[in-house]
Every structure is written in structure tokens, then in C-alpha cells.
Amino acid sequence: MVIRPDRRTVLAAGGASLLLGGQRSAARRKIALWDNASGPHLRGAVFPQRRVYPDIDGDSFLGPGPVGMPVSNRALASLAEAGANLAVLSHPGVFTEFAPYRADPAIEDHLADLVERCARHGLFTVIAFRTGPGRSEFTFHRDNGDSWFPSSMIDERVWSDAEMQSAWADMWRHTAGQFRANAAVAGYLLMVEPNGSHIVQNSPWPQMARRMAQAVREVDFETPLLISPDSYASVAHESDLELSGLGPSVLAIHDYAPYAYTHSDPNSAASFAVEAAQISPPQAARWMVGEWGVRRWAHDAARFAALRLQSMEEQGANSAWFNWPSGWRAYEEAENGWNPFFGQDPDATRPVINPPIVDVLRRYWSRNTVRP
After folding, report:
1. Each residue of 317-371: pLDDT tens digit?
2. I need a labelling partner for 338 at 20 to 30 A (CA). Which of 3, 35, 222, 345 fits?
3. Beta-strand relationship, 67-68 and 50-51
């Protein structure tokens, strides 16, 4: 009987083969990718994904697998062909959300496959966990309970449960042990948009983040840690974090200001002032914008995108546009407000020729020079 290695084992071996001169040599290259003084070096987009719940998703909306939407090879190729060299994998955590907290092989294999395919298409990846023990996807939709999903699916217990907080550290120790040798993994984002400050008094996020970071460092001394402030990665909470002594680390903020403009409804008259399109730099020496974007139909959206990109260029900040289409048609036809390929018409039902926002992204992404 031939025993075949699973995808996670293959991934680790494949990653090791990329380490020209060993892990330490690759690691020096990795942290150099996040150097604002000489950057930006990584420009790309986010692929947001979540666990599939058949009771609310059916069997086609997010695809038939455990995680949706499926990201096609064509989608990865189109991102690379547009000039991007970064894919932020905003992904469900690989541990179960309910006790006993342990690795979920189906989620692990999905992540490993996606990291591997991104590398084949010339894309560095950031592994970013949206959910995990005591935190469900529906924390991002907490104001919409009992609309398209029951409120009972909102799980935010991690902010008040010490066992769940420990399990997040265990999850990251486990994940880092699998990906530490992979030179195409440019960083670990410990939690996507931590929001403890919106749920409990005296949010434990700064202590949780440090504990997760230390768990990673038990097995991986080199891969850069991307750590977001509380309040959905708001720069206003930067001072709450203590990043010293954690090895290579990067502050990862999200910036959708001005919110009334970037999230405007179809046919809205919302606009922006030029100065509002600029990014206000954090205090951290190394920082990046892990999510930024604007709804495709917003007035003068392409100009806003160009101004924001130019601002990040001037400050040497790596960045990821939210979001790049996955190629899963059932989802993209229904939810395309953030899909720049559909152009400016809110009623568009298919991609357009020469979408203006994509043209802007291509112009800046063409400056990328490094690939995994």
C-alpha cells in the first residue's frame, strides 16, 4: 500500500524547496518586503472567504466545499496578470469554533491548497484568520441578525472566555508550524478586524494579540507577524498594542475613510475631498493597509482609488484592495458591489470592458518587481 502525503505535508516540503540558502535567508527577504522606507513591495488584493453553512447558503451560492467562495485558478491568474504580487487570504481559522477546539482537516486542506496555488501564480500570501474558537463569521454582520441568518449564529464569546483565547494561540502555533518553511507566505495576520472594543468593556485584544504572537514565535522566529489594532483594525487604536519583542512585526490597518463615501449606496450623491483620500500614517515604523477600497458605483471612484494608491506609494505602504473576484459565478452575480470589473453602473449584471478602477489598479500594480 502506497501512503500518499496529504496536501499539508506537500505544502511544507514545497515551501522548503523555495528557501534559497535556508530559512534564515528567506526570512531576511520576507521582512524586507515590509520595509516602508524602501517600499512599497507588495501590492494586491483580498480574497475574503468563510465557512459554508448549507442551511443558509444552500448548495450553490458559495460552492459545494467547506469554504466559499471557491477561488478559481483563473481568478488567481487574472490577479497576477493585473500586476499584483500579493493575495491576502482572509480565511476561516483552521480550528473549530466550538469545543473541543482542534484542527479541522477540511479547512486546513483548503487553506494549504490556496496558498500553494497562489505561489504557482506568482503571488505572495498573507494568511489571515477571520474566525476561530468562539468567533464566527457573523460577528462582521452583527447588526443584521435575523435577516439572512439567525442571530444565534453570531458567536463573539472569545472576548470573554479565557479557554477560547488560549485556543486562538494554539491555533496560530499549529498554523505557524505548518507554514514556517514556506517562502511564499509573506506574513501571518493574527485576526482580521478584531472588534473586542465593540463587544466588551476593556477589550482583551492587546493581550490576546501578544499571546498569539508569542505562540507563533515558539515555532517560527522569522515570518513577519501582521497585527491589527482593535475597532476593526482602526489606526485610532494603534497605541493600545505593544509590538516590541515579538520579532519581525507589521502594523496592519484597514482604511475605508470616508466611510459614507466608500460604502455609499447605489445612486448616492456622496463625494470626497482630496485630502480625505490620503492615508494618515501610523506611528509604527512598519505598517501596511490590509484592506482598502470603494464601492464600484461611487461617484468618481477611480479617481479616489488613484489618490489613495498614490498616498500609500508615497509612504511606502504595502496594500490590499478589497476585494478581487473569486470566479464563482453564483456569488459574483448576486454580490458585486465591491467587484471593480462590473464598472460604475449599479445595475450591471456582468463585467464591463476596461473597468476604470481596474485600470487604476493595474497602473500601480505594474510597479511590483518581486515574486515568490
Report:
1. 999 999 999 999 999 999 999 999 999 999 998 999 999 999 999 999 999 999 9
2. 35
3. antiparallel
CB atoms within 10 A of CB 369: 7
Q: How far apart are CA 107 and CA 114, in angstroms?
A: 11
What is the pTM assigned to this prediction?
A: 0.93
Bridging pattern class, strands 86-92 and 67-68? unpaired
CA 48, CA 98: separation in Å to the nearest integer? 22
Q: HSE (CB half, 13 Å, CA atoms) of 204?
A: 14
Helix segments in the chain, DSSP class H: 7-17, 23-32, 54-57, 73-81, 105-120, 162-179, 205-217, 230-233, 259-262, 301-314, 329-334, 356-365
Contacts of 69 (CB under 8 A, 6+ apart): 49, 62, 63, 326, 327, 328, 331, 332
- Are 171 and 85 in contact by the 8 Å Cβ rule? The answer is no
